[in-house]
Design a protein that fits this description.
Helix content: 55-70%
Structural class: mainly alpha
Length: 103
């Protein structure tokens, strides 16, 4: 019986990064967005209790320290996007830049 032809799957475009050294572009983008959330939280500090601010800051710090690992996962972009959306809702980050909210 002949040996079946086995195709080696190759990417059409090769990445200059090895699998252990992924492109940091995505995590850098999200890191900047989370830092915007942090700045919005700082500007609105007076409207939240101290405990709420501490918990949000702790959660933001946790996400930002794990951001590279989260972005490296297969569904990481969905997870990080969801987290960013939730933080953006809490801090009203995207409400300020949404043209539908301009009076």
């Amino acid at each position: 019986m002949p040996v079946p032809w086995i195709r080696m799957s190759r990417p059409l475009v090769t990445s200059p990064y090895s699998p252990d050294q992924r492109c940091p572009c995505l995590s850098n983008f999200y890191r900047e967005e989370f830092m915007k959330c942090q700045r919005c939280l700082d500007e609105q500090r007076e409207f939240y209790s101290e405990q709420a601010v501490c918990e949000l800051e702790r959660a933001l710090a946790l996400v930002m320290t794990q951001l590279d690992d989260l972005c490296a996962n297969a569904d990481g972009e969905k997870v990080v996007n969801r987290l960013l959306s939730e933080f953006g809702t809490i801090t009203h980050l995207y409400a300020w830049s949404d043209p539908r909210h301009v009076h």
